[in-house]
Design brief:
heterodimer; A: alpha/beta; 11 helices; B: alpha/beta; eight-stranded mixed sheet; 14 helices; 38% helix
């Protein structure tokens, strides 16, 4: 891989997670949905954070803009945007970051609109709240109409519409257009395709490519859908029960020789119309409760390759000399995991 | 013997809507047969499921069960019919009453239909939990839905549906809200009931990968805005689509393989995101083959002689021109041993 090894300074990352830990609750009853996660995202990257429900991926995304739902809080490590730790920003600076640097499309984006105002009016409000971005209101409106065309909607119709007049797929696309309105450097999308049908998924995927191509925006996609990851991302971070278990280029994640057994099993569990799409295998057991974690690797109880040490000691996230990190005793001991 | 017959059913929601949600739909299902209903949101597939399950009555047309018209059943017959058709919902979080313990949720219907007497109820419920792969303990029966994971809840919903020994189960997007690692096991569970008890399934989904897995050997019905545009044996429809909409859906599926995904990109990006056409072929607004005739005349479903039917004037062209883009690339070397999908290469060996 062309990317330098971790630890070597590179062209300033746009977003850095450094040993980030988020805790919910106190004392004995506390759980850590994000537990010591580190990785970086560079300008223009298309990165996907993948995992099943409860793996901490949405909490990780919320930490970027300091919007972790209460009673969650960052208890270790930090998130930095453009080299600036989010925790050191004051309110105004945070507002500025949220407007100009990082935009977020939440999982419930379809319910993100005010039902009694037209889309156009809501966009006016955004433009008024951030007066410095465009030369005039009219210019901002024009830019929004351009973005609506980019997400393949009819601007004249959408700006006059109320949320209830748009379908789920259309609302998701309007939410994306609103997110990139102020030209952020990064847009974070939490499960943007999950509630959509195949056709609307395809439209959203091609829109994300279009946004990346024409506006040069970096994309961080949070999803459980590996097919969408394969379609959109160039880099992938895989989380399991709060831990980063694998990080690497999309080709290494899907085709590499050195793969985390969880990732291999997850890919092998998707029924598809491709060849071999019927020889799928579910992963036995279920994601552990964060409150009752056994010692050792968190995937070990479900892992078909687990050996004694996996149940005793948590594996470290190790590179193979390149940029591909895997947290697995078996893989890092030199054994290959091609399909589990 | 035909278990379910949907005969020329049309349905409208409200009175102002010009377009029916279902437009002259015909469908039949034999005992133990699996039919998958495929289409995008708003195409009417859930409405059809609700009509079949008796939650709504169709505006026009008739639905027959075991040869008898459902709308004309007597009260006693209706109760028996009610038991023999069960529905499993998409959202296992919304389908269980949060204030009712699992034991009561499962037991109420059994008692109502007098399938088990009180003395044997618990034993029956424990057996049921075991059959759906849940922990068969008293403690589990005393739990509330919020104490269960999504996969466990969906298994409870499945247990509730099959406990009444139905002949037909309408499964509406049952795996779409489950984690990827859970999906296959839930599908396998449903399949085991289909095989062991010859339960017929109306399986509603927009995910053709899941449909191919669950309805293998069965049939697929493809709907576009209330109109059936194609139907046929599952493998035929997925690997040799005859309607441009089916071909488009197949091309649209996100593929869990970055190499193939890159190669495929752009093939459907030029297709307009258009709704139904008010006149002529319902799909003509989005169709790359459409000509003037398609916008004035409605094509009828035509059979190829082997039960594979499509409603299109250009079936030949669709078959010729999409086989390469939609099928060959998508399902590379279906019969040969070449490895194109490394994600499953290991499991195939």
């Amino acid at each position: 891989m062309s990317a330098p090894a971790p630890g070597i300074a590179r062209a300033s990352p746009l977003l850095t997670f450094r040993e980030l830990t988020v805790t919910f609750g106190h004392g004995e009853r506390s759980v850590r949905p994000v537990d010591g996660v580190s990785f970086e995202l560079e300008p223009g990257d298309r990165l996907a954070v993948v995992g099943e429900s409860g793996c901490g991926k949405s909490t990780l995304a919320a930490a970027i803009l300091d919007v972790i739902p209460s009673p969650g809080r960052v208890t270790g490590g930090e998130v930095s945007i453009d080299g600036q730790p989010v925790s050191t920003l004051d309110r105004d600076e945070l507002e500025h970051v949220r407007a100009a640097t990082v935009a977020m499309v939440f999982q419930s984006a379809m319910n993100a609109f005010n039902p009694v105002l037209t889309i156009g009016t809501q966009v006016e409000h955004i433009l008024r709240a951030h007066p410095g971005v465009f030369a005039s209101q009219a210019e901002g409106r024009k830019h929004f109409e351009y973005l609506l065309e980019l997400v393949r909607l009819d601007p004249a119709r959408v700006v006059r519409s109320y949320e209830s007049e748009l379908s789920g797929g259309m609302k998701q696309r309007v939410a994306i257009a609103v997110a990139v309105l102020l030209s952020p450097k990064l847009v974070v999308l939490d499960e943007p395709t999950t509630a959509l049908d195949v056709w609307n998924q395809r439209v959203v995927i091609s829109i994300l490519h279009e946004l990346h191509r024409t506006l040069g925006i970096a994309i961080m996609l949070v999803t459980h859908d590996l097919a969408v990851v394969a379609e959109v991302a160039t880099k992938v971070a895989v989380m399991y029960a709060g831990r980063l278990v694998e990080y690497g280029g999309v080709d290494e994640i899907f085709h590499g020789q050195r793969r985390h057994p969880y990732v291999a099993a997850l890919i092998g569990a998707i029924p598809s119309v491709l060849k071999g799409g019927l020889t799928v295998r579910p992963i036995p057991g279920q994601v552990p409760s964060l409150a009752e974690l056994a010692p050792g690797c968190r995937f070990a109880p479900r892992c078909q390759r687990a050996v004694t040490i996996c149940h005793q000691q948590e594996p470290a996230l190790l590179a193979d000399g390149g940029d591909h990190l895997v947290a697995c005793h078996v893989v890092n001991a030199g054994e290959l995991v091609t399909g589990v | 013997m035909t278990l379910l017959e949907v005969d020329n059913v049309s349905h409208w929601y409200g009175t102002k809507a010009q377009r029916p949600v279902l437009d002259h739909v015909n469908l039949s299902l034999g005992t133990g047969e699996t039919v998958a209903l495929v289409g995008e949101s708003g195409c009417g597939k859930s409405t059809l499921g609700r009509l079949v399950a008796g939650l709504t009555t169709s505006t026009l047309g008739t639905i027959r069960h075991d040869g008898r018209e459902v709308a004309r059943l007597s009260r006693a017959e209706h109760k028996i019919w009610r038991r023999s058709v069960q529905l499993i919902h998409q959202d296992p979080f919304g389908a269980l009453n949060p204030g009712v313990r699992i034991g009561s949720t499962l037991g109420t219907a059994l008692r109502y239909h007098k399938l088990v007497d009180r003395a044997h109820l618990e034993q029956e419920l424990l057996g049921l939990l075991g059959q759906v792969g849940l922990e068969a303990t008293r403690d589990f029966l005393h739990r509330y839905p919020h104490e269960l994971s999504g996969g466990q809840r969906q298994r409870v919903c499945i247990a509730r549906a099959v406990s009444l020994r139905p002949k037909l189960v309408v499964a509406d997007e049952v795996t779409s809200m489950l984690d990827v690692s859970m999906r296959v096991s839930v599908l396998d569970l449903l399949r085991s009931f289909q095989v062991q008890r010859s339960i017929a399934f109306l399986f509603i989904s927009h995910d053709l990968g899941v449909v191919r897995y669950f309805a293998a050997g069965g049939r697929v019905v493809v709907m576009f805005y209330g109109v059936i545009v194609e139907e046929g044996p599952t493998e035929e429809v997925i690997f040799h689509p005859r309607h441009p909409y089916t071909a488009l859906l197949l091309e649209s599926i996100p593929i869990p393989d970055p190499t193939l995904a890159r190669r495929e990109h752009g093939s459907v990006d030029t297709v307009p995101d258009a709704g139904p056409s008010p006149q002529g072929c319902v799909f003509s607004n989005r169709c790359r083959f459409a000509v003037d005739r398609c916008r004035t005349t409605t094509p009828k479903l035509e059979d190829d002689g082997h039960g594979h039917r499509a409603a299109c004037f250009f079936i030949e062209r669709v078959v010729r021109e999409t086989t390469t883009s939609a099928v060959t690339d998508r399902a590379p070397d279906l019969d040969s041993g070449a490895t194109c999908d490394p994600s499953t290469a290991g499991t195939q060996a």
